[in-house]
Amino acid sequence: MWLVIGLVLLAIWFIGFFFWHLGTIIWVALLAAVGAWVWHWVSHRTRETGH
After folding, report:
1. Membrane-spanning regions, if any (predicted)?
2. From 15's CA, which of 9, 30, 45, 47 has a CA 20 to 30 Å away?
3. Any idea of the CA torsion for 3, 5, 11, 12, to the nearest 10 degrees?
4. 18 Cβ contact list (under 8 Å, min separation 6)
């Protein structure tokens, strides 16, 4: 019985850990995409105005 409870808790912890890391990866990817877009836009704008 304790083994089953331990395995269930381990599974819940593992799933939570996995999804937390998945959320972190998604946030990092979003920030990287936004940063790349802003950098591209700024470099494009500065090239247009000739600064």
Report:
1. 6-39
2. 30
3. -160
4. none
